[in-house]
Design goal:
The structure holds two protein chains of two kinds. By secondary structure, chain A is α/β, with parallel strands linked by helices. Chain A contains eleven helices and twelve strands. Helix content of chain A is 29%, strand content 22%. Chain A has an eight-stranded mixed sheet, sandwiched between helices. Chain A has a four-stranded antiparallel sheet with strand order 2-1-4-5. By secondary structure, chain B is α/β, with parallel strands linked by helices. The chains are: A alpha/beta, B alpha/beta.
């Protein structure tokens, strides 16, 4: 940040809490192998390729991007479920990359996850009590054995379920209620960070708002930090303080929610936002529409230079030669990885 | 098919004003024997009833749906899962799984002919030739063991009696029409070799193959990324305009409907609770459910306010609450709502609302 005086946005950031998660240059490559008995590596899928960001206490970082951009792999690396190929993930002062399995288990307590599909992520043969209480069996220090049932009932109450339903099975609940069970399980170990991987996309519209409101209330109550991974950009805007836009394993633009949504500078962010339909027929035909051609290239063989150049409407020769670094460009405060970054409002109606 | 077409042309004396290639081909398909009246409205659905006879009891999946679609018009059917929107589409197409689904009553009138009275063999001709559907999940709608060219060509071979080579040519030009690059090469690819968006384009190509007058798109973009969704929606509305088709767009996404629909039916628990043109419904909804839905969704162009959530869950269709189905979740439910089922009131200005207190909703 090279600005001379702190803008209101930056002052706001100062007021936010300390950094709880610091991700630096994280790379996760999956080897592509050939052969059945003698396997040899023929290439790599570069799922996450140099991602850097900080997460502060009480903050929500929204991660958006199309399928295959690496947002889920990134959240698995942060969870310690995948080992990063290189880079550094600093969680509450402890380095996750290269940590022993035993230590990792202990540290993982502080990062929990809420999955997308509330039907697949709950074991149908376990009662709600057993599901929500299972984390206590691994992290025995959080709740003594005799105390667990009461703890689970407390958790159910916190997420708006009837504590008397502790002996029921997942199939006796609706989709929204199941997602609440998943949230209760994530809260059990009093984590600092919760990764929400598409937490509302499997839910009906009228139920989505209930779960979003619950997540917001819990954040205030427990001072949680969220990493909110989703493809619905309207939902992400609603819940997030900061937004990271990913494309083919890299962050192309990152900054405060207002900066990204109201003053996007990267062509990909602009295309993404302009594609989001607004539930208001009056703005039809009055919004900037950028329709991208083609599909996302394969992450096993990304384009040279800027990865977005093959679909970019601004691409010039320099884009194929030089990879644009993620840095502050011109007026708006966010970081943008485009040689030709220029602000363009695509979300609101232009008259 | 190819042998029966010529003699029957104009046999019913129907007045064919438009004799462009499109209509001429439709005639060849043997539509005259069905007795379609080209001057009649495109589609009129009246009091459609579909029930599912299950072990738990009879579920009225569609309970008295009435709406119409004209040429070049887009009707959005909006609702949550289980509200009956897909069943409505399947009933129009005549592809309900029966049992457990049965048509309980009503009419589906296409160009003056009630499709529900036609024998199955005739309905087969109506499908693809006159009414076509695009499903949500393109991968499971395409056969994985045949090339897309074969599957597209099959329509021409079966319905038009084309030779293999001619059918393949048609398939290539269709793939080209829906914007698949290098169509001539890709025609012999298998469905798994296409990306999600491209597969949906193949589905659209297939639905357009025999020049239908009415296209039903059942959640066509739900499984796709936003940028691809924008491409597909643009393709659909361009093709609709170009061919002057009627389009029924079934979705749960209030943003997508606002972008393309001319009029909207909002469904809840098997009933149409509000029917109006798109501008009025968003500016000033006349049913509490529509109002609550609009207030419960976040918008990409606004930030701030707490989302007003609708408490509770949609009811189970076999155990509908008495009176208005929405009353347990309604913010303004009264005593009357719990025992008297509201009819679809005419609110004026061509809009209808199934709420006893629609005047109050409008005034709020």
């Amino acid at each position: 940040m090279s600005s001379t005086e702190a803008t209101p946005v930056e002052q706001e950031r100062e007021r936010r809490g300390e950094v709880v998660l610091s991700v630096r240059d994280v790379v996760k490559h999956f080897p592509l192998t050939q052969g059945i008995v003698f396997q040899r590596t023929v290439g790599h899928v570069r799922a996450v390729d140099g991602v850097t960001f900080d997460l502060r206490r009480g903050e929500t970082l929204g991660v958006v991007g199309e399928s295959g951009c690496g947002k889920s792999t990134l959240s698995r690396v942060i969870m310690g479920l995948e080992r990063a190929t290189s880079g550094s993930v600093d969680l509450l002062g402890e380095e996750l990359v290269g940590m022993s399995e035993k230590d990792l288990r202990r540290v993982r307590r502080h990062v929990q996850i809420i999955f997308q599909d509330p039907y697949a992520s709950l074991d149908p043969r376990m009662t709600v009590g057993a599901i929500v209480g299972e984390p206590f069996q691994i992290h025995t220090e959080v709740a003594p054995r005799g105390d667990r049932r009461r703890k689970v009932q407390e958790l159910l109450e916190v997420v708006g379920l009837n504590p008397e339903h502790i002996n029921r099975y997942p199939h006796q609940f609706s989709g929204g209620q199941r997602q609440r069970i998943g949230i209760a399980r994530a809260l059990a170990l009093q984590p600092q960070i919760i990764v929400c991987d598409e937490p509302v996309s499997a839910l009906d519209v009228s139920v989505q708002a209930q779960v979003i409101n619950l997540l917001e209330r819990l954040q205030r109550e427990f001072d949680l930090s969220y990493i909110f991974v989703a493809h619905d950009l309207s939902v992400v805007r609603h819940i997030s303080n900061r937004i990271a836009v990913m494309y083919l394993g890299k962050i192309v633009e990152i900054g405060d929610e207002t900066a990204i949504y109201d003053h996007p500078t990267h062509p990909y962010t602009q295309a993404l936002l302009s594609a989001v339909p607004v539930p208001d027929p009056e703005v039809r035909g009055h919004r900037e529409q950028i329709v991208l051609e083609g599909d996302v290239p394969s992450p096993a063989n990304p384009p040279s230079g800027c990865r977005f150049r093959t679909r970019c409407f601004k691409a010039k020769d320099i884009c194929a030669a030089d990879e644009p670094p993620l840095e502050r460009r011109g007026g708006p405060p966010q970081l943008s990885a485009c040689h030709f970054a220029k602000e363009l409002d695509v979300v609101h109606a232009v008259h | 098919m190819s042998t029966t077409e010529q003699p029957s042309r104009h046999a019913d004396g129907a007045d064919r004003v438009s004799m462009d290639g499109r209509r001429a081909r439709a005639t060849q398909a043997g539509s005259d024997s069905i007795g379609f009246d080209e001057s009649a409205p495109l589609l009129e659905v009246e009091d459609l009833q579909v029930e599912f006879r299950t072990l738990e009891g009879v579920a009225n999946a569609v309970n008295g749906a009435t709406f119409s679609v004209a040429e070049g018009e887009t009707l959005g059917i909006l609702g949550e899962s289980g509200c009956g929107k897909s069943v409505t589409a399947q009933a129009i197409m005549g592809i309900l799984d029966s049992p457990p689904a049965f048509i309980g009553g009503g009419k589906v009138v296409l160009r003056g002919v009630d499709l529900l009275t036609l024998p199955e063999e005739t309905r087969r001709k109506v499908r693809a030739n006159h009414v076509a559907i695009v499903f949500q999940d393109a991968l499971s709608s395409l056969n994985p063991v045949f090339t897309v060219g074969y599957q597209l060509g099959e329509l021409f071979r079966r319905h038009r009696g084309y030779t293999k080579a001619d059918a393949r040519k048609e398939a290539i030009s269709l793939l080209d029409l829906v914007g698949i690059p290098a169509a001539a090469d890709r025609v012999s690819d298998f469905p798994h070799q296409f990306s999600g968006g491209m597969r949906q384009r193949v589905m659209i190509a297939m639905s357009l193959a025999l020049d239908p007058d009415l296209l039903i798109a059942d959640e066509p973009t739900t499984a796709l990324d936003v940028t691809v969704q924008a491409q597909i929606m643009k393709l659909l509305s361009d093709l609709k305009a170009e061919r002057n088709m009627g389009l029924i767009l079934i979705t749960h996404d209030m943003g997508v409907v606002a972008d393309v629909a001319d009029k909207i039916c909002v469904m809840y628990a098997g009933r149409i609770v509000e029917r109006a043109d798109v501008h009025r419904i968003y500016a000033n909804p006349a049913h509490p459910y529509t109002k609550a839905l609009l207030e419960s969704i976040p918008r990409v162009d606004l930030k701030g306010r707490q989302l007003a959530s609708i408490e509770g869950l949609p009811p189970t269709l076999t155990k509908l609450p008495p009176g208005c189905s929405f009353n347990p979740r309604c913010f303004m439910a009264r005593d009357r709502c719990t025992h008297e089922e509201p009819p679809l009131y005419d609110v004026g200005g061509g809009r209808h609302s199934a709420c006893h207190y629609y005047e109050e909703v409008l005034a709020r």
